[in-house]
Design a protein that fits this description.
- This protein has a single domain, classed as ph1033 like fold (Roll), CATH 3.10.590.
- It is built from 3 helices and 6 strands; from the N terminus they run E-E-E-E-E-H-H-E-H.
- A 6-stranded mixed β-barrel has the order 1-3-4-5-2-6.
- Helix 2 crosses helix 3.
């Protein structure tokens, strides 16, 4: 499984990144060696898909015992392998709203923008193949 992250990314051209992020849709399974697609969150002034990388370390963030409900979080380090050459963000994905159409664009819109919080998500092989076309 490949992964994608939507997060605040100040410098998309950086060679390495460190994130401590909430996870959804299988994102908590991310591990060293996994491929990850980096989306600069539009909520923080980003432009959407900016790069692809390899996870160089992954560690679950311990839960707070005093919280009844807590979304799993993980801390990861990523080495950027390539920068995106085409735009893909909220504006390009928002028209894909038929949640059952099986399209990779719809999967990404659902996982990233239906609930607009920043997160790490697991993505299907089809979505990963689709994203490869932006490099």
């Amino acid at each position: 499984m490949a992964y994608a992250i939507k997060a605040e990314i100040e410098d998309p051209r950086a060679e390495t990144f460190i994130f401590a992020q909430k996870t959804m849709y299988g994102g908590k399974q991310i591990a060293e060696g996994d491929v990850i697609f980096l989306f600069a969150s539009e909520n923080e002034g980003g432009q959407g898909l900016v790069a692809r990388g390899i996870v160089t370390s992954s560690e679950a963030v311990p839960r707070h015992p005093d919280l009844e409900r807590q979304t799993p979080r993980v801390s990861i380090a990523v080495r950027r392998t390539v920068l995106a050459t085409k735009l893909l963000g909220r504006d390009e994905l928002k028209r894909f709203k038929d949640w059952n159409d099986g399209r990779p664009e719809t999967e990404l819109n659902f996982k990233f923008y239906r609930q607009a919080t920043n997160k790490i998500v697991g993505i299907s092989d089809g979505a990963a193949l689709f994203l490869e076309g932006f490099f």
